[in-house]
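Regression test case RT-17, inverse folding.

Input:
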């Protein structure tokens, strides 16, 4: 390519960047799954049980959140192994409900304190993340009939 060709290409790239608003900004960092929760309809937070404690009693929703594991009939972990949140499923449906690790879940629920003995009541063993439930102060309660799986 000639000097004139390089100059024209450079000027064209600069003009295009200015016309189109420059390069897109990088999205904020997220957890390993890239999924986030929306609390009270507007506050977007990464999936992390330590962050949930500030939102006890608030409505929370998740869209296309990855199910990390399903340690209990009425409970599952969403997010990734390092940053995850426990979801307790309430109001069982007659049609039954089967969630599997790796599925994506869309839901709406409420942030609730775990309370004493929560891990034992849910039947979540230490190997299944029961220790994390003892350390975390809150989880999300979601009625099964509002959960969408894919």
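Golden output:
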């Amino acid at each position: 390519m000639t000097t004139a060709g390089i100059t024209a290409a450079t000027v064209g790239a600069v003009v295009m960047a200015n016309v189109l608003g420059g390069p897109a900004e990088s999205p904020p960092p997220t957890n390993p799954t890239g999924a986030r929760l929306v609390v009270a309809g507007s506050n977007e937070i990464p999936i992390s049980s330590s962050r949930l404690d500030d939102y006890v009693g608030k409505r929370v929703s998740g869209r296309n959140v990855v199910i990390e594991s399903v340690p209990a009939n009425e409970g599952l972990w969403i997010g990734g192994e390092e940053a995850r949140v426990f979801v307790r499923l309430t109001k069982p449906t007659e049609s039954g409900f089967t969630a599997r690790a790796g599925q994506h879940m869309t839901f709406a629920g409420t942030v609730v304190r775990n309370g004493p003995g929560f891990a034992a009541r849910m039947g979540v063993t230490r190997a299944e993340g029961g220790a994390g439930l003892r350390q975390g102060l809150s989880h999300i309660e979601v009625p099964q009939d509002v959960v969408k799986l894919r």
